[in-house]
Amino acid sequence: MRRSKVPVSTTDQRLLDTEGSADWLHTDPWRVMRIQSEFVTGFGALAELGPAVSVFGSARTRPDSPVYALGEQVGRALVEAGFAVITGGGPGAMEAANKGALEAGGTSVGLGIELPFEAGLNEHVDLGVNFRYFFARKTMFVKYACGFVVLPGGFGTLDELFEAVTLVQTQKVTRFPIVLLGSDYWGGLLDWLRGTAAAEGTVGERDLALLTLTDDVDEAVRTVVDDGRRPRG
Ligand SMILES: C/C(=C\CNc1ncnc2c1ncn2[C@@H]1O[C@H](COP(=O)(O)O)[C@@H](O)[C@H]1O)CO
């Protein structure tokens, strides 16, 4: 750099001078280091997890609800089929799946997210990692799972579901079964995808087959096991 572009201080001065503003901590280059550290921490924590399935669902599901019981069942059944269970580590359906997994003697993983109203990881998580960034956390859900089981949920669950379908549709991931558990809840969405989106041509008919809808926990687990083995055509 020359003339007016020459900085008024050197990099070493900025490193060694202790006085001054801490604003730099909140700049994008510094954020990149934090983002990187989230990936390093996540990869390190999960590298030896073994076969796992990510289970999603509403943070608002109440412990006395049928969906909570379904979440417990699916957590338990996945462990009995040899999988670790990964959730968002929060309350509701996430907690239910972690509880089922833990009670069945399996590995119960919670990938928490920093939120303004965060309550911390639920008590049924035995391997937990906390993230600041949704996108780093979402990479872990896909990278360390061989399928998704999706319980009834809201925007967070829909985001996770549609990200997974998009990754499969665009072949960013292969052999990735996605099971929607609860036909009363998810049936309307599938009807809309078929009757409106596919009918308009914005979604391919073939891509609808990426989603399996069931009420049966055993079928959900079987789909994850069988689909994971089947070669993609
Ligand atoms: C709403 C409340 C707490 C939220 N706490 C969460 N902790 C961890 N993960 C969460 C939380 N909220 C959303 N998520 C992620 O999105 C999915 C659920 O979102 P939905 O909108 O509730 O469907 C879930 O799978 C998580 O990955 C206080 O009760």
From TrEMBL:
This is Cytokinin riboside 5'-monophosphate phosphoribohydrolase. GO terms for biological process: cytokinin biosynthetic process. Its EC number is 3.2.2.n1. It catalyses: 9-ribosyl-trans-zeatin 5'-phosphate + H2O = trans-zeatin + D-ribose 5-phosphate; N(6)-(dimethylallyl)adenosine 5'-phosphate + H2O = N(6)-dimethylallyladenine + D-ribose 5-phosphate. GO terms for cellular component: cytosol. It holds the Pfam family Lysine_decarbox. PANTHER family: CYTOKININ RIBOSIDE 5'-MONOPHOSPHATE PHOSPHORIBOHYDROLASE (PTHR43393). Keywords: Cytokinin biosynthesis, Hydrolase. InterPro entries: LOG, LOG_fam, LOG_family_nucleotidases. GO terms for molecular function: hydrolase activity. The keyword Hydrolase applies. Gene3D superfamilies: 3.40.50.450.
